[in-house]
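Recall the central idea of this unit: under ordinary conditions, the amino acid sequence of a chain determines the structure it adopts. In this exercise we apply that idea directly, starting from the sequence alone.
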Amino acid sequence: MNYSPAMDMTPQKTNGVTHISDHIPKWYALYVSSRAEKKVEIELSRKGIEHFLPLKTTLRRWSDRKKLVDMPLIPGYIFIRIPYKNYLEALQTRHVVAFVRFEGKPAVIQDNQIDFLKRMLKQTDYEWEVTTEELSPGQKVEIIAGPFIGMEAELIAIKGKKRVGVRIEQINNVLLVEIPMEDLTIKKI
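Accordingly, the structure predicted from this sequence is:
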């Protein structure tokens, strides 16, 4: 049987035979124990599992000092890229709680969403943050200037500021980017 990228790539077994989709690496999100993201990252490296832990450098203050530290951008999560057949190996990693699931199956994260997160971490032109706050859908916009030129997003207002929100729906987080209004245009339907 010939397989094409356009075919449904969900893992399936027929009569005990593994399909090619089990061997194609895809991105998944893992829930991890509290404050164990970096430990899981080390364990995944030891196992040779491709992973992505988005970190953001923040200034932490203690009573006696201040220090720049790398903190998980999305606490409690780490992303892995594996073929479905390696599901159990990833799940048996210390401090991994479970896969993020959608309709009872591990939720596949699109490559472009991981690429966007990586791109966000590299940019310094705009102030941004991650929130789990529920946002109501708003006007669709296209970014016409700056490092995110060409991206489509949803216009939202939080704390009185206009921001562009890009929703990563598989993990119920919203990435908020503060972008000047002159860098946006309303998306025509």
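The radius of gyration is 19 Å.
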